[in-house]
Amino acid sequence: MRAAIFRGPGELAIEDVEPGTPGPGEVAVEVRAAATCGTDLKSYRRGHPKLFPTLPARFGHEFAGVVTEVGDGVTTFAPGMRVVAANTAPCDVCWACVRGRQSLCENLIFLNGAFAEQVVIPAAIVQRNTYEIPDSLDFGAAAPLEPLATVVHGMAETGIELGDTVVVHGAGPIGLMFVKLSVLRGANVVSVDRSAWRLEQAGQAGAVETIDISGLADAAEIAARIKKSTPGGRGADVSIEAVGLPAVWEQAVQTLRPGGTAVLFGGTPKGAPFSVDSSDMHYSEYTLKGVFHHTPRYVRTAVDLLISGRVDGHSLVTETRPLDQLVPSLEDMAAGRGTKYILTP
Ligand SMILES: [Zn+2]
Ligand SMILES: [Zn+2]
Asked: Which residues surround ligand 2, an ion (CB under 5 A)?
């Protein structure tokens, strides 16, 4: 079968490999749709020691498909079932899991290999983070389950209340999901980005106002412009960073109202500090929250959102392409031509 094989930064190709056979507790799935994500792009460019400790390795982790074979002991899935799975499962025994912080699990079990005709889901992920999906949910709409689950996690940390003003910094796929879910929570959402094309999508996702900051001179000007769109010019009740740049983390904090909460969501490069005015932090009683990854609870909520149609997975996708377009699609993402592609084997 054909599968994407990753050999190191910049070295990714579709090759012929042997399909896997499911061991005890595992499930083999014929992939019908696999989605590209920002993590794929980062890994392709720079490598990713946590996701790819050994090379060569299979590549891709957002997918949906049809079960073809199940390993010994699997009772909840059977051949022919349409399924979607998250990219990891927590171990449930380390200190973090025991304390209910499964996103911080020290022994996360990863799945790689979604960009392929077939993938075998590890037993731990079969048990905790794999779901049957109805015919009404397209494979392509279900594939972006993992990022949606992380956004559901982020939402749980926002404390958004009815009528709150929420500023979402960044209108890529993650930012758009935050816009959509904040609207579902009853917030007035302001979307901020540097691309008119992405802001148009944020408007479609329900943002009451979109702000293009591309022409503004500096951080102070940007913060002033954003605050102007909040009640009384005080700032956002909740500010969500969905870009992954320290400057935007700072922007998210600088646009809070006194007592506001910033959810700093976008992953930044290692060793990249960001700064907060300690006096503002003190006198304005800000709450700053870092959010990473997801937990089985948030994965389940994300599956429910997709099945009910309250979140349309298709709305996050730029285009559907054949599997051999994987590398060109990552290049298009790097060039800002698209944000998320569905690849079909
Ligand atoms: Zn992903
Ligand atoms: Zn654990």
From this structure: 90-91, 94, 97, 105
